[in-house]
Automatic annotation (TrEMBL):
<comment type="similarity">
    <text>Belongs to the D-alanine--D-alanine ligase family.</text>
</comment>
<dbReference type="GO" id="GO:0008716">
    <property type="term" value="F:D-alanine-D-alanine ligase activity"/>
</dbReference>
<dbReference type="InterPro" id="IPR013815">
    <property type="entry name" value="ATP_grasp_subdomain_1"/>
</dbReference>
<keyword id="KW-0067">ATP-binding</keyword>
<keyword id="KW-0436">Ligase</keyword>
<dbReference type="Pfam" id="PF07478">
    <property type="entry name" value="Dala_Dala_lig_C"/>
</dbReference>
<feature type="domain" description="ATP-grasp">
    <location>
        <begin position="117"/>
        <end position="325"/>
    </location>
</feature>
<dbReference type="InterPro" id="IPR011095">
    <property type="entry name" value="Dala_Dala_lig_C"/>
</dbReference>
<dbReference type="InterPro" id="IPR011761">
    <property type="entry name" value="ATP-grasp"/>
</dbReference>
<dbReference type="GO" id="GO:0005524">
    <property type="term" value="F:ATP binding"/>
</dbReference>
<protein>
    <submittedName>
        <fullName>D-ala D-alanine ligase</fullName>
    </submittedName>
</protein>
<keyword id="KW-0547">Nucleotide-binding</keyword>
<dbReference type="GO" id="GO:0046872">
    <property type="term" value="F:metal ion binding"/>
</dbReference>
């Protein structure tokens, strides 16, 4: 049996970096990241090759290729079109091959922050009030004037904090209009939310059903402690934060409540194998709001998963083993 890795390398896409460094930044894994994963897989005794990305999958379909005794590991964020994270699952379904990660519809739902929240309304979980703005659904200023300010304006279908900066926090309707118009120049759809006071927390899950190898909370405390500071593209790229795991920063009861809710969300949405769920946590009020879920989170020794491994005194290759075991348990 062979693992075939699907990934469209960061180096082949637009660089959104805001720093004067040689490091690229966008919503795709780097070639170095994929090499690290492949080396870990091979060190575990598995056969593994890099297959390619979306163009190679299309070519495989066009040429009627078959892949016996192979499992595709999907680390692709797709190309730069809207709903890019759906591309790999859809093409892998057409190829009729087993693959890691969530299927087409769950990936589509998770890719849309606004409608993902709509799908979870019956769970009774806390989440900020939101609406979308695009060319078919224009800004409704009369409605938004009645909302609680500040509001938070950001792209609806992007990851890695693309399009997010401190001026996404809007204190007046005029600021909302200005920010929406600016973002719509680069992104097809915008989400507007009531701003949630608190700290950024992410819950990383590796596993399926009630069996999870990893269910860990990572809190990001920003260096910028000013009011309405945002974990935006600059902060993420340049790691302008201190990370804490589980109850190092937030109380144990909140950690356990978030973990339980994350499993409920993952199961409700039909997540397979891996996801990352983001929250805003207000420690003083003992409250946490669901913000979004990522169906294809970064998997590297320098991302949250690497931090979790470090804090648990385990090698990155062990995290890769957890992931492979999760995939194999589901598919074989």
């Amino acid at each position: 049996m062979k693992f075939l890795i699907i990934c469209d390398y960061r180096e082949n896409f637009v660089d959104y970096s805001r720093a004067n460094t040689n490091k690229m930044y966008n919503d795709h894994p780097s070639q170095k990241n994929i090499t690290e994963i492949m080396d870990a897989i091979k060190s575990l005794g598995y056969n593994c090759d890099y297959f390619g990305g979306i163009p190679e999958l299309i070519h495989a379909i066009d040429t009627n290729q078959s892949f016996d005794d192979s499992i595709f590991l999907n680390f692709s964020d797709g190309m730069d079109e809207d709903y890019s994270r759906i591309q790999a699952p859809a093409l892998l379904e057409i190829l009729n091959v087993p693959y890691s990660g969530s299927g087409v519809f769950p990936s589509a739902l998770m890719n849309n922050k606004h409608f993902c929240k709509k799908a979870l309304l019956n769970l009774g979980i806390r989440m900020p009030k939101s609406c979308i703005v695009n060319h078919d659904f224009p800004l409704n200023c009369a409605q938004l004037r009645k909302w609680k300010y500040p509001l938070f304006v950001k792209p609806n279908c992007e990851g890695s904090s693309l399009g997010i900066s401190n001026d996404c926090v809007c204190h007046t309707i005029d600021e909302v209009i200005k920010k929406c118009n600016k973002l719509l120049m680069d992104f097809q759809e915008i989400i507007i939310e009531e701003y949630v006071e608190g700290i950024d927390v992410t819950n990383y899950l590796i596993g399926n059903n009630a069996s999870y190898y990893i269910n860990s909370i990572v809190t990001a405390k920003l260096f910028d402690e000013s009011s309405y500071a945002i974990y935006g593209i600059n902060e993420k790229q340049n790691k302008l934060r201190t990370l804490f795991i589980d109850d190092e920063y937030i109380p144990t009861n909140l950690v356990e409540a978030i973990k339980r809710q994350s499993i409920l969300i993952a199961q409700t949405l039909g997540v397979h194998d891996i996801c990352r769920i983001d929250y805003r946590v207000n420690v003083s009020k003992q409250e946490f709001d669901f913000i979004e879920i990522n169906s294809a989170p970064r998997f590297s020794s320098t991302s949250e998963i690497g931090f979790i491994a470090q804090k648990n005194n385990i090698l990155f290759s062990k995290m890769v083993q957890y992931y492979l075991t999760t995939v194999l348990d589901r598919l074989t």
